[in-house]
Design goal:
It is built from one helix and no strands. The protein is mainly alpha-helical. The termini are far apart.
Length: 29
Amino acid sequence: MPGLLGEYGLHFRAGRLAFRAEIFASAGP
């Protein structure tokens, strides 16, 4: 089921990006 895998990868990538942005914001001034 490539559709399911693709959707999972998309959510995983978005989650990682949000996590990174949160860390970056909390580490900022």
